[in-house]
Amino acid sequence: MFVVLFAVVMGAAHYYVWRRAVRDTTVPGRARRIGTGVVVGLFVLLMAGLSLNVAALAWPGYLWLACAFYLAILFGVLEIPRLLLNRAARRAPVAVGGSPAEQPVAAGGRANGQPVARTDPGRRLFIARSLAVVGGAATAGLVGYGTTQALGDPVVKRVPVTLAKLDPRLSGYRIAVVSDIHLGPLLGRSHTERIVRMINEQQVDLVAIVGDLVDGTVEELGEAAAPLRDLVSTHGAYFVTGNHEYYSGAEPWLKELDRLEVHPLRNERLRVERAGAAFDLAGVNDVTGANFADGPDFARALDGRDSADPVVLLAHQPVQVREAVKHGVDLQLSGHTHGGQMFPFHLAVGLQQPVRSGLATFDGTQVYTSNGAGFWGPPVRVGAPPDITLVELHHNFARR
Q1: CA-to-CA distance for 356 and 368, rounded, in angstroms?
Q2: What is the pLDDT of residues 268-314, one digit of tens each?
Q3: Residue 163 is inside which H or E element, if any?
Q4: Are 371 and 182 in contact (CB under 8 A)?
Q5: Predicted TM-score (pTM) above 0.70
Q6: CB proximity list for 275: less than 8 A, separation 6 or greater
Q7: Biological process (GO) annotations (predicted)?
Q8: What is the CA radius of gyration of the chain?
Q9: For residues 368 and 161, is the Cβ–Cβ distance under 8 A?
Q10: For domain 155-399, which architecture applies?
Q11: Which of 186, 319, 328, 379 has the fewest C-beta atoms lying within 10 Å of its C-beta?
């Protein structure tokens, strides 16, 4: 159903792009036929890249997806100047005489001796071509910039978080949060090695990978994930499932990650201690797991703990904070949103998730949402650079 819906939406977008970039800028003939063939071919390439998940098709297919997306948006924005320029290009009304058969009738005019406002076809073609160039140039700039953002090093963010229950001896405890790595046909072993290197450089106390590590099976991507065994931290590395793990075969991946010493937290918690002080680290499965008989179980993960100590919860989607609040969670660490990845998708995230990016508070529970270190679909990020976050826990001394 997703592929069918996607094909319908992108088919409509390609038709609109064809109208503005091909039909409006050419006259009937060879150039229009070639342009039409190119647009059809790009649509087929896009669908093949999405369906077959092969790098040779995915790279050009997904890049074109970003181009088609921004072309459609920019051509839509240019509709108003197009309308104004076409109106301005109409010739001044002239009186037309002679017999009705001899009287040309232009759009918006009248014959039989009445004024006729005619548009110069050459000017209309010039306007269409000019706007197509503007839209194409802007798209190339946006996609080019977004590609450098998506494929460059993630930004290392430092986010201090104050927890009222935190023992002062744990103040300064640092958790490296990374999400949405999305190993797959476009991102492989070198991407994992870079993330591991950047985390290890920070000398953190604990590593939290909060879902959507992979887009493929262990057989396909096991070698790409292998560098995770080199993660170094005081108290180890932990993982919770994202929705894409369930699409990729969650059980084999959970076993593989355990083998790599990245320990899955499957609706469970553990005690983290330093210098005689402690907090609880818990993890719940992604909500998508409910469709695979492996959904989140907050009661199992959180009930029965000592409420005097703070609890840090790993949960892939920010929306899970609604349940976290009911169980007295102090801090939830999440991903999933990609920070919107490509503007203006930022605006749509709020329809599904309570937090797009950064730190927020809901009924006493803080939730931090990472932009993620990878990308899904187009290798493009506009307005949402990839990140690795160092969450630093602090005690609220003012409440002592």
Answers
A1: 9
A2: 999 999 999 999 999 999 999 999 999 999 999 999 999 999 999 99
A3: strand 155-163
A4: no
A5: yes
A6: 169, 170
A7: lipid A biosynthetic process
A8: 28
A9: yes
A10: 4-Layer Sandwich (3.60)
A11: 328
